Amino acid sequence: MIRCDGNAAIGMGHVSRCLALADELREEHRCRVLFTMRDLESAGAAAVKARRYDIVALKADADSDYGPALQELVTTQHARALIVDVRDRLSRASLDAIRASGVRVVTIDDGSDRRLASDLAFYPPVPQVEEMDWRGFAGQRYAGWEWVVLRREFAAGASADIDILVTMGGSDPAGMTAFTVRALEQLDAPFAVRVVVGPAFDRAQELIDAIVRSKHPIQIARAPEPAMLAALMRASRMAIASFGVTAYELAASGVPAVHLCLTDDHARSSSAFEKEGLAMTAGVFGRVSPQDLVSAVSRLMGNAGRRAEMAARACRLVDGRGAKRVAARIIDGLS
Fold this sequence. Notes:
Blueprint: E1 2-3, H1 13-29, E2 34-37, H2 43-50, E3 54-57, H3 67-76, E4 81-84, H4 92-100, E5 104-108, E6 120-123, H5 128-131, E7 140-143, E8 162-167, H6 176-183, E9 193-197, H7 204-212, E10 218-222, H8 226-234, E11 236-242, H9 245-252, E12 257-261, H10 264-276, E13 279-284, H11 290-301, H12 304-317, H13 322-332
Helix pairs in contact: 1-13, 3-4, 6-7, 6-11
């Protein structure tokens, strides 16, 4: 059983990586995979249904610890493992109770104390992982580029003919896409720009207004399937992206990127990419001016050698096979 959500408010990153893991479990290990989600009419649920997975509704208040309801679902569905990828009120005590019933508990990139109730905890190599208090943790922790969970379509290198790819995740609740399109007007030369908007994007008029005023030839890709999105990434010389799952997909595709971050925590995570020479961090949205963003884009676009080095290093570190490794670890404990 996989517990996650995806919508315009929280984005689609949790659903994207959970689907990557679900595909590996179903196709490589012949597991029955069931999702449990709050809103069966959301963009996240639509993506899960499109991949032909069953979903059972989680009937619980969004602002409460819904542990008892989740445990009942786990029990009635006879789940042997529970994979949790959420940022909500589910408590450590609730996961402890589920784990005590004999169910293997797996957490994905979880910064809350419920991670301490997991058998397996997986993280990208961001600095926050080592700063967390791990006292009382009896499970196994895996942190590194090799454990980044991505759809298999992104496990390939780049061959560019798009100048700048703008992609702000599945929903872009802050309006970073239109901000970026407007900021790019400060570039002297016109560039071929491709804008990706996700399935939960709901700021169309704001974006259209920015595009019609642009001197750049801009095309929009609306909610592309993973294979098409991966192809767009590989066809791009560089990208401007919101930090999140998209940042890891770009790295696996060998695309140098400039990250816009929604929060200070995202900026700290993005610093791992900058430290390894995979991307540049523009800063936290709301504190980044259009000039700041264009300055970072200009430095990257104007240095083909640096872009080539970043692309090669990104493909070596983020090979796109993290979901395969995570699935194998989960199955090892169920054999």
